[in-house]
Structures are given as structure tokens and as C-alpha cells.
């Protein structure tokens, strides 16, 4: 493949299937399209809004986002509140049942106020997807895993996206945040065997030295010494979601979303100088990586409490 992009399609079900061929399905459903050397992976948070983590996971996987607004429902409002706290470039797609003025009122004052808007036209969307590419990030290879399963005769196979550098077959890497080191036995890109996969490529990687039950979503395949991990975390000041109805305080039990990891967390002291967090298990992160605090117990309103940036060990 010469180019690739991963796009989150949120706000309405059944739109992604008009743009690609159905692939891996779990709490997320992936749709794929390969044209003239350009590979597109569309991620739909299938179990949202019943469950909230699929939405933040889909957004964390994405280079770009299509926010489809078929109507101004509670689920769309929660999606908009979440999108305001992430930086993924977003296009707003208007369904036939919603008008431009009412959408403009909802988006006013937020990050999406100036986002490009367009009608729901699959032909136009397909053409636009062909022009999008993942950013090319230089550095040591890093592949973020989103699914894993056993394959008879092969062993452990992990699916994910190369987010930095170039991943090569037969390299040895650490499976962050665990201390385990594994060998990349082979790589496939959209079912084609390759010796290496560049930044942005969606890969299937056969791993030697690890069982499937030792691999989970959010783990990162990268060389030793290139990332950070831990359960005691320091973070920058907490920025509350303007639509969140609760109050985040020291001692609260919430969830932390960082990368594709969603883990229970206890909030420590909060202040203008920063925040302390303690997760129930180690997480992998980069210094200053953005993260979200989630309140999965709220009876109404958005389940995203706010955002912060992880600065290092706490």
C-alpha cells in the first residue's frame, strides 16, 4: 500500500457500510476499502450509546472523523460533547432530517463550530476519503493493537495500526505496558503478506512469544525504552467538559481513557498545577499524551467528564 487512513464514523449507524466492506466486528465494526494503492479503514462504535468506551476508542483509533448528524438526539449530543475534547480533524455530515441552522446552534462556541459541513452523499464522501492520509510520524516503530485472536497453525495474531515509524518482520519489540518481549513473525496489510509496514498502515501481525490471552486492546508494540508505563501518573490541569453535570473531586473512582486503553482510575489531588491519578493497572503512554476522564455511572448528560494530559510518573 502506498497510503492509508483510519476514519471514525460516528453519530449514526449504517453509514460506514455504504463506504466500505465489513471486516472485524466486536464492540467496534471495521469497514475496509482498498483502491489504487490507497487503503481506508472506517471505524464504527457499534455498541455506543449503550456503552460509552466504544466511542472514545473509535476516536482514538482515527486519523480523521466523520460526524454524521441524522437528527439532534441525545446520542448525537453526547458524541459532540466528546468530540469537543479531542483533536481529531472532523467533518460534519448533515442527514436529510436535520437543517444547517439547528446544527450551527448546537455547535456554536465549541471546536466543531468551524468544522467543514456537507450533506450525506456517499459518492462525495468516498471521493473525499480517497484524498485523506494518515500523518507520517518519524521515529521508532510503534503499532497500537485493537484486536487479538488465535489462528491455528500461526499462533497469536494482533490487529492494529502502525502509528509511528516502520514495522518490520522478525524484529523484537516490547509489548507495552507489559514487560514481555515478542518477535514479529510476519505482517499482513489488508490480507497481503509484506516484509514491512509504514506509518498509518493497518496490519495483522503474527507474534511469537506471547499467548492471545496475554494481549489486550491498547497495548503497543514498540522497542524497549521508547515509551512510558505505570499506574501512578502525573497529569496537567483538569479541563472539565462544559456539558458534564457532575463534579470531579479527589478520591473519585472514574475511568481513564488514554490511547485505546480504558481503565478504572482513582483521582488524586486536583489543582492549577496538575492532577495525580492512580489506575488499577499499568497503562502505556507518551509524555504529554492527551487523556480523558470518564464517568460511566452518570444517569444523564455526557459520560465524558473532561480532559488532561499525562506528563509522567506520579
Describe this structure in words.
This protein is mainly beta. It folds into three domains: 3-129, P-loop containing nucleotide triphosphate hydrolases (Rossmann fold); 142-222, Beta Barrel (Elongation Factor Tu (Ef-tu), domain 3), CATH 2.40.30.10; 228-313, Elongation Factor Tu (Ef-tu), domain 3. Helices cover 11% and strands 47% of the residues. It contains four helices and 23 strands. It has helices at 53-61, 74-83, 100-107, 122-129; strands spanning 3-10, 21-25, 29-35, 38-44, 64-69, 90-94, 117-119, 142-151, 155-164, 167-168, 172-176, 181-189, 192-194, 196-197, 202-208, 220-222, 228-235, 239-240, 253-258, 261-271, 274-285, 289-294, 304-313. The strands form four sheets. The protein has a seven-stranded mixed β-sheet, with helices on one face. A hairpin with a 4-residue loop joins β11 (172-176) and β12. The longest helix has 10 residues, at 74-83. The relative contact order is 0.14.
Topology:
Elements: E1 3-10, E2 21-25, E3 29-35, E4 38-44, H1 53-61, E5 64-69, H2 74-83, E6 90-94, H3 100-107, E7 117-119, H4 122-129, E8 142-151, E9 155-164, E10 167-168, E11 172-176, E12 181-189, E13 192-194, E14 196-197, E15 202-208, E16 220-222, E17 228-235, E18 239-240, E19 253-258, E20 261-271, E21 274-285, E22 289-294, E23 304-313
Parallel strand pairs: 1-4, 1-5, 5-6, 6-7
Antiparallel strand pairs: 2-3, 3-4, 8-9, 8-16, 9-15, 10-14, 11-12, 11-16, 12-13, 12-15, 17-21, 17-23, 18-23, 19-20, 19-22, 20-21, 22-23
